Amino acid sequence: MAIANDDQLREAAEKVSALVQEMQNYLGERNAEEGKIRFPYGFIRTANHFRGRVAFLEDHTLQSNIAYTLILSDVLRWALNRMHVVGTAKEMLAKQIICVMGGVAESTTKHYLRGQVGAHAGYKVRTAKLVEIGAITKDLKDELDWLWDTRMNEHLFLVGEREYQRYSVRESNRAVRAFRALRDSLEVHHAAAP
């Protein structure tokens, strides 16, 4: 039966949640093919979709690798948006989205500036160079630098404090918006280049 309204949606979510919990109670820590739930179709975008969104990079291998990483981002975002995950697990999902977006932004800036002075410099030097050549705004540079600083927390030995209650859905959304703004700005800049 198709879901037609929010009341039916709520009822379906309750039933699914109860069944998944029963499956977990039965399985415990063991794995079983019979206990795998099919990931729903319709949320994860295709590699072709993502390659098309970074076509300005003009490197098919990099376009594909970015596409595959953004598919991972869709999986993580689905888990964060469709599952009632709480506490530290929710925060770590948000952190992983930030790390994924930071890694994609890093590769995008490095490739976009290839052959230019500063292309092989550090990330923040590259974002400054992008402002200098008019490819991004200073405000976007600030957002991208925040993304980079937060993404660096994937190197746990560099994190000097507990990460408990440090990441949020709001910050993961901020990271996604920062990368999208970078992509859109570079696409426009690339199209306007002589």
Gross morphology: elongated
Spans of 5+ residues with little confidence (pLDDT < 50)? none
Structural class: mainly alpha
Strand content: under 5%
Helix-strand pattern: HHHHHHH
Number of discrete helical segments:
7
Distance between the termini: 55 Å
Profile the largest sheet: none
**Radius of gyration, taken over Cα atoms and rounded to an integer in Å:** 20 Å
What percent of residues adopt helix (DSSP H or I)?
Answer: 55-70%
Report the average pLDDT across residues.
93
Number of strands: 0
Q: Could you walk me through the main structural features you see in this protein, from its secondary elements to its overall organization?
A:
The chain is mostly helical and 194 residues long. It is 65% helix and 0% strand. It is built from seven helices and no strands. Helix 5 (123-132) packs antiparallel against helix 6 (138-151). The chain is elongated, with a radius of gyration of 20 Å. The model has no long low-confidence stretch (mean pLDDT 93).
Task: Spell out the key features of this protein.
mainly alpha, 7 helices, elongated
